[in-house]
Design goal:
Elements (H helix, E strand, L loop, with lengths): L1 E5 L5 H4 E5 L10 E10 L2 H8 L17 E7 L11 E4 L8 E5 L3 E3 L6 H4 L5 H10 L9 E5 L4 H13 L2 E6 L5 H7 L3 E4 L4 H9 L4 E6 L4 H7 L7 E4 L12 H5 L4 E4 L2 H6 L3 H16 L7 E6 L3 H8 L7 E5 L5
Parallel strand pairs: 8-9, 8-11, 9-10, 11-12, 12-13, 14-15
Antiparallel strand pairs: 1-2, 3-4, 3-6, 3-15, 4-5, 5-7
Helix pairs in contact: 4-5
Length: about 325
Amino acid sequence: MKQVLLERYGQPEDGVRCAEVADVGAPGAGEVVFDVLAFPINPADISMCRGNYRLKPALPATPGAECVGRVTAVGAGVSHVEPGELVINLQRENWTQRRRVKSEDVIPVPPGLELRQAAMLRINPPTALLLLTDIVALKSGDWVIQNVANSAVGRLVIRLARARGVKTLNVVRRETLFGELKTLGADACVVDGADLGEAVKAHTRGAPIRLGLDAVSGQATARLSACVGERGVICNYGSMTGEDPVMSRNALISGGQTLVGFILGRALGTRSLDQIRTIYADLGEQVRKGILSAPVEKIYPIEEIKAAVAHAQRGERSGKILVAPNGPV
């Protein structure tokens, strides 16, 4: 079978290749085998390939934080999924044609869920949801500000916040995105820059912003902090700049603000398996109904993984880059 191997850290498209490897074999007791139908290339996957992600496995290694698959076989004692069902996988190493995993690591997705959207269910939707529920006890009418608002997570934050009556102020790098984000339900949009604080005040009319969601880091964190009210929280969950987040001492001491970090695995780790399955069942149903979605720009075959990885690093894309290891989806 075909599988992507990362053979050296550095420029991602130089370090990965599509290789022929041994098949995973039949499932043992308590195991599930599934064909990987599609997987997205996420920023965390790119960071891992570069060698600057929090996980740095010994090489060669197979990247891939998420995927959607179709179950082909189950081992003895497995009852919550059966052959033919679509599943997502809670484990990594998904840039491959086939996986064999413990049964508790696969979660069935709602019947009728479109494959491309199912491939992106594992990470971005729960990230957006838990950013809105786990950091600050937000109420209807509260303001949240986020940068990278046109990302997959950012778009989901807009829709999920709207459903809760929470207002979003969305920071982007170009004004041409405003119309698109407002169609999703964004309450206000601004272009990032030195005058961000003043631009934000014009939209909120002085209402305090309780939560700032930062996926850029560096000085962008400080600019977001300048928009958040006294005792507000800045939550960092990514670094497009590759830098550490920066906040002023005045914001921390005089403003009483808090800087916290978020990673999905830790947030899910505080919950039981039943709770995790409930989260994904609810989010999957919202995706199936079209309430939540993420755009896809292009789908590559696994043999073109180098081109796919290079494409995923381009700026100003219109959507995610997916890979279909077992034929078109």
